[in-house]
TrEMBL record, chains A, B:
Signal peptide: none annotated. Residues 1-11 have a biased composition (Polar residues). Residues 21-81 form the HTH tetR-type domain. This is TetR family transcriptional regulator. PROSITE patterns: HTH_TETR_2 (PS50977). Residues 1-21 are annotated as: Disordered. GO terms for molecular function: DNA binding. SUPFAM superfamilies: Homeodomain-like (SSF46689), Tetracyclin repressor-like, C-terminal domain (SSF48498). Keywords: DNA-binding, Transcription, Transcription regulation. It comes from Actinacidiphila bryophytorum. It comes from the Bacteria. Residues 44-63 bind DNA.
Length: 216, 216
């Protein structure tokens, strides 16, 4: 891509026409897929142009620098991960069953072992790079943690787990076990580390469970 | 560095003289430091030559390709991490106190928040790269997990934790919480995610503790 320009120029799709927004979204979708499959550094302009079916000048128009593209992909993946975790399927993580359902999904997900977490693997690859992306990543992980924390607080309100549980600490355990387990499973090409870590983390949440009979 | 050559050529210091081994070790030490501080991709020949005080032809002699250098750095960091975890300090992780001491060390370690785990951050950066390094990383993480697993088994033999504990699963929880917590802390530039994840993971091990009076 061209020389470094102010990244703000390319950050938002706000000023684009409907057709422009669609083209930008198509580029992003393919960029996210290539970076998830092969890594940020192995993803180059030519692959992206071919995958998205666009010209070099189009690519340059929407994403004048690789930095602007990487930033947009981080936002794209963060939105997808958060939307998935906030979906009906997990009912706001207000029960142990929803946590087990979540673990089960990722343990069964065929790309966990090869490509890891779509956001975590991106973070691992670029957090040390000289990109203005750390704050965006930090914000995304905070929101993700808050999905778990809010669920754990709700479980306390519903009398499902004890007030002795620390929702923030347990949320950090769940998200860390997930990120670390994904990395280990990806390296080992074996789902066991992730499966074990999530099961043990959720078992720990369960040690705070209040039996239905004992609940107020 | 030069064109790709068979990596086996540069993998071992076996055929080097004493002086050659010392030079190779000095290059490796500086390469590991640069990659830990700035990342693999941001580390280039010129920085490395300056840091290690060597010529380009010397660097080429010991590490003809970047791949050979990255492989050697992975081995170097793996050896250091394993030696640290096997040191007297942690007494083979045969007690809850040794686990707490370990967590305390990394929570207090000033580089946890900036550079993350020396081996995990390397893995996160290169696991998707087209390098012949995954098997080496997998082996290192397995050995690391086994340090914890063996410690947990010893705790069971000593009657410190119950036979209901699954040492492999708990070892995966500890290592995943560590790797994930390191990534989250690095992204947030805040030690809390790591601190919380390790504390909760060790709390979970403690739920299997047998009080001294109850032990056989």
């Amino acid at each position: 891509m061209g020389a470094m320009e102010a990244t703000t120029q390319a950050r938002g799709p706000q000023k684009l026409t409907g057709k422009g927004q669609a083209t930008r979204a198509r580029i992003l979708e393919h960029a996210a897929e290539l970076m998830y499959a092969n890594g940020v550094h192995a993803t180059n302009n030519e692959q992206l142009r071919r995958a998205a079916g666009i010209s070099g000048s189009q690519l340059n128009h929407y994403f004048p620098t690789k930095e602007s593209l990487v930033l947009a992909v981080v936002e794209w993946q963060a939105e997808r991960v958060l939307a998935f975790h906030r979906s009906e399927r997990f009912t706001g993580f207000d029960s142990l069953d929803s946590l087990r359902e979540w673990a089960h999904f990722y343990v069964a997900y065929e790309r966990s072992c090869r490509e890891g977490c779509s956001l975590g693997s991106l973070a691992g690859e670029i957090v040390k790079a000289d990109l203005d992306v750390r704050a965006d990543l930090a914000h995304a992980f905070e929101q993700w943690r808050d999905v778990f924390r809010d669920g754990l607080r709700r479980m306390q309100q519903l009398g499902r787990i004890s007030d002795a549980a620390d929702p923030t600490r347990l949320a950090h355990l769940l998200l860390s076990a997930f990120q670390g387990g994904m990395l280990l499973s990806q390296v080992a090409r074996d789902i066991t580390p992730l499966e074990d870590a999530l099961r043990a983390a959720i078992d720990h949440v369960e040690t705070f469970a209040i039996s239905p009979a004992a609940a107020p």
